[in-house]
Amino acid sequence: MNELLWLSFAVLDLTMVVVLFRLFGKPALYGLIVFNLLLCNIQVLKTIELFGFTTTLGNVLYASVFLATDLLGEFYGKDAAKKGVLLGFAVLVMATVYMQIAMQFTPSADDFVQPHLEAIFGLLPRLALASLAAYLVSQLHDIWAYHFWRKRTGEGKLWLRNNLSTLVSQLLDSAIFCLIAFWGVFETPVLIEILITTYLFKAFVAALDTPFIYLAKRVVSRERAAASAS
């Protein structure tokens, strides 16, 4: 059941990236980076079993962040992609600070939400540190690698630069995040299992996003052709 749900979730999320990009253009990609980054940092708290392995739930949404930055880099240039990365970084910092402030308010006598907020967001500073470090290193590497391979492949072989840049960047991200977020939280064998399986599942979603980036390129090409004709 988990496997089918996870795969359906991945396809849905990647599809929505293309749909929103088609409807709203570049602003949608910035919005998706922020939305998925915030939500995956909550979902990552949940560990699940997939194909007999333990992994975190947030890997689907986080993988699609790479698709959004690759789309920004492909169609709007390296500076636009970097702006998206820095926007996500700034919003994650704000969310961390704001939720820590929110938990400092004394709850009313009949409040029932505070313990749940503490259970989720009490871990957020450490998760945010892990996410920020992993996010910046991996995303900046992804942008650099994407354009490195683009210079060598030209306009062709989109699948190659998309996958080469993302697969290495996802490895950096998984290693940095898991070591900072979960060191001392899980026993070493579980930590290693989470790191490996998290990367493998992210790598699978990264490969899965290849037809979606081609679909997005086809949409953009059609729109630009129509604009030139009119």
UniProtKB/TrEMBL annotation:
Q: Where in the cell is it found?
A: Cell membrane
Q: Which InterPro entries match?
A: YhhQ (IPR003744)
- Which Gene Ontology cellular component terms are annotated? plasma membrane
Q: Which residues cross the membrane?
A: 6-24, 29-45, 51-72, 84-103, 123-146, 167-186, 192-215
Provide the alphabetized UniProt keywords.
Cell membrane, Membrane, Transmembrane, Transmembrane helix, Transport
Q: How does it sit in the membrane?
A: Multi-pass membrane protein
What GO molecular function annotation could you give as one example from this UniProt entry?
transmembrane transporter activity
Does Transmembrane helix count among this protein's keywords?
yes
- Biological role stated in the UniProt entry: Involved in the import of queuosine (Q) precursors, required for Q precursor salvage.
Family (UniProt): Belongs to the vitamin uptake transporter (VUT/ECF) (TC 2.A.88) family. Q precursor transporter subfamily.
Enumerate the PANTHER family for this protein: QUEUOSINE PRECURSOR TRANSPORTER-RELATED
- NCBIfam families associated with the record: queuosine precursor transporter
Please identify the protein, giving its name as recorded: Probable queuosine precursor transporter
Organism taxonomic ancestry: Bacteria, Pseudomonadati, Thermodesulfobacteriota, Desulfovibrionia, Desulfovibrionales
